[in-house]
């Protein structure tokens, strides 16, 4: 066996309470995320509004609590007014971000009513690329205003009497990126975001605002961007966004398995940047993070780039990455990192929900199915409840090319209940190619672990289609009726982890 790792836990030591918005996702007008994704009126499962019932059912099983819309890069040249009102009067337009003719069949009302029917909180983004203050404030009024003002009355005329009450708003998308339509430098964007956010909050003071952070930690302007933008917006906004994607490059499996260490460093650096601005302002306010795009995405090795996409008039099969068991283990590990930063990361969006780098895939007129990455997300959303405990992990390290030395074992533990007793969620990752025994040390706590889910990495190429996804599920995703534990001393529970695996277990605990 690999040298043991230990995880020390006690309910007196807690990192923070889990915000259920941590289990968000993302639907952008990109590829087949909307059309033949969530929406396909001709499909056999379509509801009276044209939305696929099979996709909605899988979304519920996935445990998604919130969905970001309509973008993404798409939002930066989107005129939201063109996507409301009678569908037959709407005009198609060229989406400059993804070079696709947008049919305009799904817009603000259709999305928000779908989210409402499915019990999903919406997260809306405004266009600060080609538009600005007035359009952003008007959209808030359209969504949240009461009768008697221009844009609220337009919503009512379009058939929706009650305000939607959208709480969470993104001030544009990835405005630091040269690829963004209407790209701006940090000073230009910071000033615009401050003015747009001010106007939006004058319409509805109850909303929360997300200001754009860096599109990745690899951006040349990373760090400086955060500090400059927050110097203009600190007193106005609630969250700063983070985006990050991870992939296996050049067969470097060890670095890929250590991706969550890179995510952890990214979060810590953004927190430090935000807190530095707060310190300079002598502010007691704390900016939190909206990690509103994250996933495994083979961006460098599979995606040709936006400028190389041909102009297409039908929903295009863009960025339909097919995932493996290895990808699923890494995604589960990324979720462990998000949990362990619950004090500063209340919002996160797995990008995206359907077809586009997604846990759910569909065929037009055909089936919908789960990709391997579906399973760790769904299990975490189900089992992670209450507070995240501040655990201490002692583990050997692995040397990687991209991330340096990374822990061989990672862990997160959640506790739902009072101090004296609670329901546990235990999440453990073995990044090594050998089995590992992890010793859970819980002095003064009687702990019983039950069943859960285990995902193991594979070594085969990922293949598109429900048959291959089902094979991965059968061979690399196991429902555990009981925890894989060995005999332990009082106050200690030892869990066996398979090589290159992610394991989630339920449990109960009582102070002794």
Question: Could you explain the architecture of this structure?
Answer:
This protein is α/β, with parallel strands linked by helices. It folds into two domains: 133 residues, Sandwich (Immunoglobulin-like), CATH 2.60.40; 365 residues, Glycosidases (TIM Barrel, Alpha-Beta Barrel). 26% of the residues lie in helices and 27% in strands. It has eleven helices and 26 strands. The strands form six sheets. It has an eight-stranded parallel barrel, surrounded by six helices. The protein has a seven-stranded antiparallel beta sheet with strand order 2-15-19-20-26-22-23. Strands 16-1-21-25-24 form a five-stranded mixed beta sheet, with no helix packed on it. Helix 6 crosses helix 8. It starts with a strand and ends with a strand.
Question: Could you provide a short overview of the structure?
Answer:
The protein contains 11 helices and 26 strands. The chain has 512 residues and is of the alpha/beta class. The strands form 6 sheets. An 8-stranded parallel beta barrel has the order 3-4-7-8-9-10-11-12, surrounded by 6 helices.
The mean pLDDT is: 96
Ranges with pLDDT <50 over ≥5 residues? none
Q: What value does the Rg take, in angstroms?
A: 23 Å
- Number of discrete helical segments: 11
Structural class: alpha/beta
Distance between the first and last residues' Cα? 32 Å
CATH architecture term of the largest domain: Alpha-Beta Barrel
**Biggest sheet: strands, sense, closure?**
8 strands, parallel, barrel
Task: Walk across the major sheet and give the strand order.
Answer: 3-4-7-8-9-10-11-12
- Structural domains: how many: 2
At the fourth level of CATH, the homologous superfamily of the largest domain is Glycosidases
Q: Care to count the β-strands?
A: 26
The gross shape turns out to be: globular
Strand proportion, as a percent range, falls in 25-35%
CATH C-level class of the largest domain = Alpha Beta
In CATH terms, what is the fold-level topology of the largest domain? TIM Barrel
Give helix % range.
25-40%
